[in-house]
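Response to reviewer comment R2.3. The reviewers asked that we include at least one raw input/output pair. We reproduce the pair for Competence protein ComEC here without editing.
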Amino acid sequence: MRFKEWERFLQPLSNRSALAAFFCSVLFLASAKYPIYGIAFVPVLLLSLYAFPRFPRRASLAVLLFFALRMGTSSWIFAHPSEENPFKTPTENLGFVESVMDREEGVAVIIRSESGRFRLSKKQPPFPSPGDSIRFQAKWFPVEPPTVPGGFDSPKWLRGQGLSGFGKLESFSVLSHRFVFEKFFSGFRHFLKNYFSRYLPAAESGLLIGLLAGDRSQIPDALQNGFKRAGIVHVLAISGFHVVLLSEMILLLLKATRMPHRIARICAILFMLLYAPAAGGSLAVFRAVFMFSVVQIGLLFERKADSLNALGVALVLLCAFNPEVIWNVGFQLSASATAGIIAYGKRNPLILQSEVLRKNKIWICFENYVLSAVWITWVATAFTAPFLIWSFHSLSPISIVGNICVVPLVSLGMQAGLFALLLPIPATASLFCEAAGFLFRLSAFLVAQISSFSIASVTAGPLPVWVLLILGTILLSLGSSKNNSCARRIILLGILIFGCYFTYQAFLPKARPEWSVAVLDVGQGDCIVVKSPSGNVYLVDAGVNTGKRNVAKDKIIPYLQEEGIWMLKGILITHPDLDHFSGASVLLQEFPVENLWIQECSRFADKPEWKNVLATAQKLGVVIQDLKRGMIFRETFYTSPQKRETWNMRVIHPDPFYCGETNSQSISMRIEGIGGSMLLTGDLTKEGEQTILQTDIPLKSDVLKLGHHGSKTSSSVAFLEAVNPDIAIASNGRKNRFRHPHKEVVNRLDSLKIPLLNTSEKGSVFVRFNANGYQVQTSL
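Raw output as returned:
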């Protein structure tokens, strides 16, 4: 009886051979790559194959045999791009240009050589063309793991792109040329760019190019960030949604020419198969094109295709070309969202069955354009949530608003642009482009409003893989839970496991209290994350920007999300120097922050960037408070029913009645609690140190964060002797022009036998304090 329930539970797969084959393939490939999960996956795979009817079982076994043979012959599971260090690759080499992609400044060139595939950037013409065989000189960029957890992982990104390294193309000479289809596709993208630039401003033209050709290089960064925070960044480039819209429009236009329907379908299939690589060839595009092709081929033979089975065919084909795509987050999001929408899109509980309302045209319009959009957005969000939490540790609760208000406008703008392209009469094209421009401007305005809310993006997770797998299983089981006891048991068991897991996570900090300090590697600047025993998080300084890259977006926010931090108790800026507050404005705008703590003297600093930080905090309603000597942040907790412990973060500098040189007035704090103590000194100079030494404040600390990045103007012998730390930490950038930490400071530390950890050498430094003392770890 129970096995019959299992068979009924698998019925959505049993009736769809291609989807069943893909399901089995994922279990097989995941078990092969991660044997630990195979302990659970292999029994599920065997039970599923046994429960499937004959044809789905044979189809699944055939696909599994294909992947097994492929693994045996090519060892793809271990086949990664060359791990060769780009620094060992000759700066002068021979290569073949596979593709050339436009970027905001110049181009990015994909070159294949004997050493591997490389991505090289070039800002100024001349540029090579796809199909060129060239002799080139390159400057290679280092490929290193992230020094801040959650930051950009260049080795992982290169593996995902099938690349061995990246760098800068210094010069090249063309040796020969041969035709490749990519040259035609590149010409198509340039044609679109030149065509729409006649009628639209750069930003709106760039948005339309992104929608039609998948090239986002001309879309302003501010607009892209807004769409990302609003949870609708997928509409900025070619995705499955756009392919469906475009394919239906092409098919409609072909039929409108009185072309026989069979010929129109064949032409539409061929057009879309050519369009996919021309539009950048993303996995979502190929998935949608394959699905469209399967449906149309079925109609050619007068057989109505099942949408979920068509999805299965598309996913199996993508995996057949490259089984590694199942680990690609774009593939995961595209497949899960599509499956969820197809399976649950028409099961909208928000739609009422009242006969009276069904006759009301206004209500029907509300159902079709609002309630359906809300439900489909919720379904897509729910089904992609496990992958979003795993890959990005964040969700966008406000994405429903974006999908209802913005996506239709962008879609209409894309259609207007397509009509302008298909009807190239100047007057007609101009009219359609004006309509597209208006819709895009309205979309940008709405996105700016939506993304300004602090809850536009919230931290979710991180959660273990097994927890996310259970979450996914529960979501898949919901559809059949009403009529299937097996599905109900799975849901109840999953909820029980969730309850146990989250109860354990809530109890653990109370049973084993600890606090931590993370000195992040943000280059030649300071950024320190302090987490108290109760879980309150304080950010001491906000780093320094590098070129056009904002440190908050690149390093600080990814780290906070990686650690599961969803709110900051406050941002503390030790003093208004750019290398200590560069990321503050973005943090205030894009991450929930309760307080901004500063020194009183900094209110009078005449720096535009600093004034912008204060103005941003005031605009967002963040409380701004002055810190001065004697103020204490205190928490009490129990390590046992009888033993009470105290955690103190005490401000020991500056003096509230005197404003001196900026660095000398840096806010300095001594943190003490279970396991040890730590002293944070900002850019404190010898003058500030002397002021502290003249007080009776206890300074002895286990760990010292050196003042002013290890400058010789800080860390006097008297101050080091008073603190007497076991370890000193210096926060500075690699090969910085100040040569910090200075040799004199290093010699002082050596003479006092104080070990030094330097972020430029060790990456981020993490100090964890608990009942066993303190432990120090580094990211490198």
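The chain has a mean pLDDT of 87. The two ends are 55 Å apart (CA to CA). Further pairs are available on request from the corresponding author.
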